[in-house]
Design goal:
Elements: E1 2-5, E2 12-15, E3 20-22, E4 29-31, E5 47-48, H1 74-92, H2 101-119, H3 125-146
Antiparallel strand pairs: 1-2, 1-5, 3-4
Helix pairs in contact: 1-2, 1-3, 2-3
Length: 147
């Protein structure tokens, strides 16, 4: 088995002489010349390499993409759920506006919703909790003004 260097992306390719070599990175294909057979000029043959380069001499790997970090943190989901729950309680207790209870729950729902939305902007639960908390605040204020 001989090692060759891909002419397009410089990846090491292991291939038997006389068989087709295929690069796994870029998909380049070429026939590896058999021992003692000259290569054809129509298709560039991979150039043989004496030894693989020592580890750590290549370019450093690119930094990981912060947007592709996998699943959402459970804390952001629970924060959004608590914000939604507080907003619903604030909306349900709007008739207690003279005491101030829906304002406390509504503000808590808005704050937790904003925190959850800031942690994960792709997940809209925090935004929904914030809007629902704001609706609870407006409903309590309207009831207080009408009272």
């Amino acid at each position: 088995m001989a090692q060759f260097k891909c002419p397009q992306c410089s990846t090491l390719i292991n291939a038997e002489p006389g068989q087709e070599a295929r690069c796994l990175n870029c998909g380049f294909r070429a026939m590896v010349p058999a021992a003692g057979t000259p290569s054809t000029p129509s298709a560039p043959a991979p150039t043989p390499m004496a030894a693989p380069p020592p580890p750590g001499t290549g370019a450093p790997p690119p930094p990981p993409d912060p947007r592709a970090q996998g699943p959402v943190m459970p804390l952001a989901k629970s924060t959004a759920a608590w914000g939604f729950l507080l907003s619903m309680v604030g909306l349900g207790t709007f008739f207690l506006a003279p005491v101030g209870i829906p304002f406390i729950f509504g503000l808590g729902g808005v704050a937790l919703g904003i925190v959850a939305f800031a942690k994960n902007r792709a997940d809209r639960r925090g935004l929904i909790a914030s809007v629902l908390g704001a609706v609870a605040l407006v409903a309590a204020l309207a009831f207080l003004l009408a009272y």
